[in-house]
Amino acid sequence: MRNLWIEKDAEMRADAAHGANMKGRWQEDQVHFKDDFTDDTLATDKWLATVTNATIAVDHSTYAGGTALVTTDTTDNESSFLATPLAWEDDLNAVAEFRFLVTDVSGVAVFVGFSDATYETTPDMPIDYSGGTLAAAATNAVGVIVDAGDSVNGVSSIVAVGVNAGTLETAIDSGTDWADGEWHTIRVELDPDGDAVFYLDGVNFGTTMFTAVASGTKMCVIAAVCNRDAAADTVYFDKIEAWEDRES
Known about the structure:
Layout lengths: L30 E5 L12 E3 L3 E6 L7 E6 L6 E5 L11 E8 L5 E8 L11 E2 L6 E2 L4 E7 L9 E8 L2 E2 L3 E6 L5 E8 L5 E5 L2 E2 L15 E8 L6 E11 L4
């Protein structure tokens, strides 16, 4: 058996870029989910949408290629959720990646990652800086948040957060602020011990969050948006993707 290890990427050039460039079947040996939001409407067979203070709809008119557009109303501190079923687990090395744009960082909180529930009642975020300090409505969740209510790291700070069996983990500040109108790609990677590592635009935060969640917890991939002011704000999700190993 021979394996080809690719450290960075494979790029098709010349003739390979203008026609079929692979013979034989490409057989991916992982569970793989991806939505580029190119359908006419939000795919309800893929997504469980819980809308409280917002609308969530596929938008093709603003950005080419399609996005999921979350538009808040003027109700402060209420959250809406876009989540998959509870099909993801650290034991299977689950990974989730999100590419999105925040139009007004001072007006919203956005959490992306994994959670043990597809929505939190009240409604509330899985983890956020409600009232200025870190708090969790989820029992087990891990991800990245940018929260206008964050008085600890800063209102535009990109911060990794987690909660394990109801106990908050120490947050990890990426050291980067999210500016209005910027696209960023966030990735959360889990291992079978429940540890998590975080990436911002392909660069590791530099610190592992050990036992970020209780190992063996089935979770959803979730994007949550909460309004933080009295104005309507928008968040555009260009891509949400996840993958994990298959059960053996």
